[in-house]
Write a structure and sequence with these properties.
168 residues, mainly alpha, Four Helix Bundle (Hemerythrin (Met), subunit A)
Length: 168
């Protein structure tokens, strides 16, 4: 009888081990699938954010070019026809340009892009200072001084265009 009893225990142990091994393998597989799905979800979320930021940066690039050109052309037109509407237009758009620059700095995806946006911000501040001096000269009736300031504005403006076109 003891041989039969030992045989049953051996058979039960023999059946239990593969069952436990299969259950452990199945649990491990489910765990790995869960981890892989979580990792895939995280990658998709990260890439979606990257794509959205990249699209917004491209849109901001166009916005920056538009506002920068509109501001500089407002100064040019004020120098030419001395109408106060150009100065009014300038001050309406100036805040919008600074807001777009600030947003570009927030979204800059790389250190190079961040440096480009910081350089752009610095150039813009120099431009605004010069353009305001130009408006002061225009209001004072000093056309020659306004023209000289405008020449300096154009040099900085072209540097800004280079920043936006080549480095952004």
């Amino acid at each position: 009888m003891s041989a039969t009893s030992d045989g049953k225990e051996g058979d039960e142990l023999g059946l239990r081990f593969p069952t436990l091994a299969c259950a452990a393998a199945l649990a491990f597989t489910v765990l790995m699938l869960f981890l892989l799905a979580g990792n895939a979800f995280w990658i998709v979320q990260r890439e979606s954010k990257y794509v959205a930021n990249n699209l917004e940066m491209q849109a901001l690039r166009g916005t920056l070019l538009y506002y920068d050109e509109a501001l500089t052309m407002s100064v040019l037109m004020a120098t030419v026809d001395k109408q106060p509407k150009w100065e009014q237009r300038y001050f309406q758009l100036d805040d919008k340009l600074q807001t777009a620059i600030n947003r570009s700095i927030e979204l800059a995806p790389t250190p190079v892009a961040l440096q480009t946006m910081a350089d752009l911000d610095l150039s813009n501040k120099r431009l605004v200072r010069l353009e305001q001096q130009c408006f002061q000269s225009i209001r004072a009736g000093d056309a020659e001084s306004a023209r000289q300031i405008l020449e300096r504005v154009w040099k900085i403006y072209f540097n800004v265009i280079v920043l936006l076109e080549l480095r952004a």
